[in-house]
Amino acid sequence: xxxKPTRPAMLALRWLGVGAGPTALALAFLWxxxxxxxxxxxxxxxxxxxxxxxxxxxxxxxxxAKGVCxxxxxxxxxxxxxxxxxxxxxxxxVPVIGRFALAVGQPYMPDSGTTVRSMALRFMPPDAQxxxxxxxxxxVLPLRDARDVSDFFASQQIDPATGKPSPARTKAFGLTHPWxxxxxxxxxxxFISSGFADDTFHSLDSFVLVAADGTKTAVRWxxxxxxxxxxxxxxTGDHDYLFRTLxxxxxxxxxxxxxxxxxxxxxxVINDPSQIWALNDQTIDAGTLTLxxxxxxxxxxxxxxxxxxxxxxxxxxxxxxxxxxxxxxxYMRSFSLRSGEKRSPSAVTPNLIQTYESKKS
Length: 361
Hints:
Largest sheet: 10 strands, antiparallel
Strand content: 15-25%
CATH superfamily: Catalase core domain
Number of strands: 12
CATH class: Mainly Beta
Order of helices and strands: HHEEEEHEEHHEEEHEEEHH
């Protein structure tokens, strides 16, 4: 049977259909790169600002560059099971891979007691989707949205004359962002513990727990140490003293934390991480984290993991907090960059850890 000749209009539509997918994809990349709105805060812009603020790069994470891998497990208490269907709140001995780090862009910087510390975790239930979370020890995040993040990184730009951020630029950031004053002051007066093992780590961002019946509860969470808490002594004589202490602590005994969920009250602000929640909010002990192994990032299990806070299992959802999207995008771009770079050895080497293992044996 003879086919009717294709009309010019139909031919054009067919070609349009063929090209629509690639065109849309190209436009998406241009949009993500900020080509249509130069003022947008993009992944590349954030990476550039981190670079200007002294981020080392060269195969390392653009922030929290100095770190070490840890592993262990999580035992649910069952007390949060009615709030979320996520397997991690229902099961025992869920394998965990984690990372302790300092919030610095330089992987070889000397340890300082006042530097922000982080705990990042990947929970891996055997027959369920994993959960990743990254937490810091300040109790609140003094940033509200993507613009605040970009402005803050820009304020930390290194002055070539001094090799440090300009005090005037840092002061100007505070003056032009008065809505962040309360959060900054709370962090400035936070208790600083002696090290990683006795530190408390906060989710900073808000999330939503979803129960089996669909009920939703907004929460923030905290890892509270079960080890005795001691004040930091500001020790700076040992270049890597915080990590040496952590290695010694974890070889001496398993380290443990309670995962405590704080349930949002009606007056708590969910979508702004710079807002401090009420001190009398209800809390629930969701279970116990146990870490009993530590390895260098040189070949360690955490090295290739991006602790993206939006890698969430059924039962945990992101809130409308805009910083979550910023963190996820920045982590993924950082991972993409460092994956294509040659990496030098970590400050916390396998030999350093093996020295403590030899002492224990």
